[in-house]
From TrEMBL:
Signal peptide: none annotated. InterPro entries: 6-Pfructokinase_euk (IPR009161), ATP_PFK (IPR022953), PFK_vert-type (IPR041914), Phosphofructokinase_CS (IPR015912), Phosphofructokinase_dom (IPR000023), PKF_sf (IPR035966). Its cofactor is Mg(2+). This is ATP-dependent 6-phosphofructokinase. It catalyses: beta-D-fructose 6-phosphate + ATP = beta-D-fructose 1,6-bisphosphate + ADP + H(+). The lineage of its organism: Eukaryota, Metazoa, Chordata, Craniata, Vertebrata. It is found in: Cytoplasm.
Length: 782
């Protein structure tokens, strides 16, 4: 009954309450997904929800700027960039008379809950407003502008902030809404520029946004393998000009036809003097005579469609915001809901604002190490990976090789595999290892399709989709003899296996083979890379984000088509084997009416309920439907069956069309998320490998037989961790090739609520309030 009670509470939590939602400051892609979730989850709980148009300006001006929202008012906005309710820079609200006006407008409408989506400036304003609330009401009552009755009804104001800012400059959150989409825009441009730069052997200097925060610049340089990055938090050493020129010359000598330098608009040197893209261009032209061009990206970065990540982030945060508002009391501080690793957290708004201000202050006082620390774990990890990969001379292979490590791809192709190979090869070389690459998976390991990889072998691989090494689903068991022979022949001391479920089962087989073949007693580690995201031990796998964006793009186009034809339902089939991750997440990101998956069994009554739901929907102003089906969700309810059933039952009301997306989901250029994730995983795996090999040396040769020497490297909640394969065996459903417990199943109710189903929302999973100071400096998030 416990669950049932919490469900009843959620459905009635908002009765008699009113929530207003506004977007303020610079726009960011994904704000609309957040607005949509706040409106629909708010309505689901029984609350009334109001839009405030044009940010704080609308709050001050009132009247037609504050409008009640209904279910349909947020239809078709999830795929739009910017903010549909408008945002304005507002002077009035930052003066007390403006806030008096705003308070009066809210009181008159009975609104005591405010959800603010914006950057740190907007959120600071919200906190001031809350602190002054009772004094504002007292003043309004004294002036006779509101009654005593109204004061009683609106005795306190709840405020929850969502961080919408493409700079990702807000402390306490790993990702702000809009950051991922901005990276998408930047990477599209970098990829395009790379092709022209190679034709002409040019050097390109790209300036990206980020006045006080170098996050976009930093991730971009990891994702495109830039030669150098300038960020405000970590200025270069005083002789940086010489160092930079040396660096560019080296890259060219190694046979590279281009150089890419990324500059954050707020880049400075150690003395706080700005470093501009023009300065850098002049330097390179003068000293090296390279043909150099500058591209300033500007507002392009704020534009375009939100990425799948931002839509899901916006939707999840929107739901959290409503819960935090409705559970708020006069004593709870104004909070921010944000993401830490893969978990939603609530943080006191002012603590976050304070730390964010501290960073700027530290940079002004030239205490750059403090600034880096305050930015948090995630930023530091990224910086570490960047510096390790970029700021080295290509290692000269000496006679004494430390270790011999082989890298391979197994399973089906996934975008980002090449980025993982590149970073493990290069980190391996930096550590003085010999790195071998294996073609065509375990089959290639058996046939001896193995070669040594140099530094330049993997040049330019970060942005390439698919698998350059070649990949196969073959498992190793039947080749143990040949594999063992090749491990001995090539003196392989460790194996990095990048791939999907076969990489995982293959590694388990190798582990079992250790009993018979001592050549297999070497350390190995699996880096999950598959569009299906079904590898046990990791919340995400390399390639899933790219596939999700491909599916999203298709869904957007189909919705647009259905909007024109009206009364049409599209049924889309996604990949994923038995794993419903892609279907669920794509459903959430594209605003689907239902997502059928294997993990949540459904029967004819459910199908009937879905059809009935669509019939009702066609009576509203939204005359279209989108259904997502995972390829193996049910062997009898095939896509044809479901399409026929919908066609028959919807006769005269709507018609149905089907679309099987197929292998295009495995292709495409990897998204910034997959490039960055793969690069970090590759680097971490190789570092672990070098240590493990050294630990396993017995009498001059490697012998590793312990469970800890065969791991999966995965992201769990907030950290990248190595987990012994033997421990993960218990968590695996081998028949259906999925983990028994999957974190994203807890997000499924949100998909149903946003599609207007009466569903159970289990609130036991909700975020609790944490404190920033502690989390930002010692948090272990990835």
């Amino acid at each position: 009954t416990m669950k049932h009670d919490s469900h009843l509470q959620t459905k009635t939590l908002g009765i008699g309450k009113a929530i207003a939602v506004l977007t303020s400051g610079g726009d960011a892609q994904g704000m609309n997904a957040a607005v949509r979730a706040v409106v629909r989850v708010g309505l689901f709980t029984g609350a009334r929800v109001f839009f405030v148009h044009e940010g704080y300006q609308g709050l001050v001006d009132g009247e037609h700027n504050i409008k009640e929202a209904n279910w349909e008012s947020v239809s078709m906005i999830v795929q739009l960039g910017g903010t549909v309710i408008g945002s304005a820079r507002c002077k009035d609200f930052f003066e007390r008379p403006g806030r008096l006006q705003a308070a009066r407008n809210l009181v008159k409408l009975g609104i005591t809950n405010l959800c603010v989506i914006g950057g740190d400036g907007s959120l600071t304003g919200a906190d001031t407003f809350r602190a002054e609330w009772s004094s504002l009401l007292a003043e309004l009552q004294k002036e006779g502008k509101i009654t005593e009755e109204e004061v009683k009804k609106s005795s306190y104001l709840n405020i929850v902030g969502l961080v919408g800012s493409i700079d990702n400059d807000f402390c306490g959150t790993d990702m702000t809404i809009g950051t991922d989409s901005a990276l998408h825009r930047i990477i599209e441009i970098v990829d395009a520029i790379t092709t022209t730069a190679q034709s002409h052997q040019r050097t390109f200097v790209l300036e990206v946004m980020g006045r006080h925060c170098g996050y976009l610049a930093l991730i971009t340089s990891i994702a495109c393998g830039a030669d150098w990055v300038f960020v405000p938090e970590c200025p270069p050493d005083d002789d940086w000009e010489d160092h930079l020129c040396r660096r560019l010359t080296e890259t060219r000598c190694r046979g590279s036809r281009l150089n890419i330098i990324i500059v954050a608009e707020g880049a400075i040197d150690r003395h706080g003097k700005p470093i501009t893209s023009e300065n850098i261009k002049d330097l390179v032209m003068k000293r090296l005579g390279y043909d150099t061009r500058v591209t300033v990206l500007g507002h392009v970065q704020r534009g375009g469609t939100p990425s799948a990540f931002d839509r899901i982030l916006g939707s999840r945060m929107g739901m959290e915001a409503v819960m935090a508002l409705l559970e708020g009391t006069p004593d709870t501080p104004a909070c921010v809901v944000s993401l830490s690793g893969n978990q939603a957290v609530r943080l006191p708004l002012m603590e976050c604002v304070q730390v964010t201000k501290d960073v700027t202050k530290a940079m002004q006082n030239k205490k750059f190490d403090v600034a880096m620390k305050l930015r948090g774990r995630s930023f530091q990890n990224n910086w570490e990976v960047y510096t390790r990969l970029a700021h080295v001379k290509a290692p000269v292979i000496t006679q004494k090789v430390k270790n011999v490590v082989a890298v391979m791809n197994v399973g089906a192709p996934a975008a980002g595999m090449n980025a993982a190979v590149r970073s493990s090869v290069r980190i391996g070389l930096i550590q003085g290892n010999q790195v071998l690459v294996v073609h065509d998976g375990f089959e290639g390991l058996a046939k001896g399709q193995i070669e040594e990889a140099s530094w330049t072998y993997v040049g330019g691989w970060t942005g390439q989709g698919g698998s350059k090494l070649g990949t196969k689903r073959t498992l190793p068991k039947k080749f143990f003899k040949e594999i063992s022979a090749n491990i001995a022949k090539f003196k392989i001391q460790g194996l990095i296996i990048i791939g999907g479920f076969e990489a995982y089962t293959g590694a388990l087989e190798l582990m079992e083979g250790r009993a018979k073949f001592e050549e297999l007693c070497i350390p190995f580690v699996v880096i999950p890379a598959t569009v299906s995201n079904n590898v046990p031990g990791s919340d995400f796998s390399v390639g899933a984000d790219t596939a999700l964006n491909v599916i999203c793009m298709t869904c957007d186009r189909l919705k647009q088509s259905a909007e024109g034809t009206k009364r049409r339902v599209f049924i889309i089939e996604t990949m994923g084997g038995y794993c419903g991750y892609l279907a669920t997440m794509a459903g959430l990101a594209a605003g689907a009416d239902a997502a059928y998956i294997f993990e949540e069994p459904f029967n004819i009554h459910d199908l009937q309920a879905n059809v009935e739901h669509l019939v009702q929907k066609m009576k509203s102003t939204v005359k279209r439907g989108l259904i997502v089906r995972n390829e193996k969700c049910n062997e009898n309810y095939t896509i044809d069956f479901i399409c026929n059933l919908y066609s028959e039952e919807g006769k005269g009301v709507f018609d149905s069309r089907k679309n099987i997306l197929g292998h295009m989901q495995q292709g495409g250029s990897p998204t910034p998320f997959d490039r960055n994730f793969a690069t970090k995983m590759g680097a971490k795996a190789m570092t672990w490998m070098s240590t493990k090999i050294q630990e396993s040396i017995r009498n001059g040769r490697v012998f590793a037989n312990s469970p800890e020497s065969a791991c999966v490297l995965g992201m769990r909640k907030r950290a990248l961790i190595f987990q012994p394969l033997s421990d993960l065996k218990e968590e695996t459903d081998f028949e259906h090739r999925i983990p028994k417990e999957q974190w994203w199943m807890r997000i499924r109710p949100l998909l149903k609520i946003l599609a207007k189903y009466d569903t159970d929302l289990d609130t036991t999973e909700h975020a609790h309030l944490e404190h920033v100071k502690r989390t930002s400096v010692d948090s272990t998030s990835p």
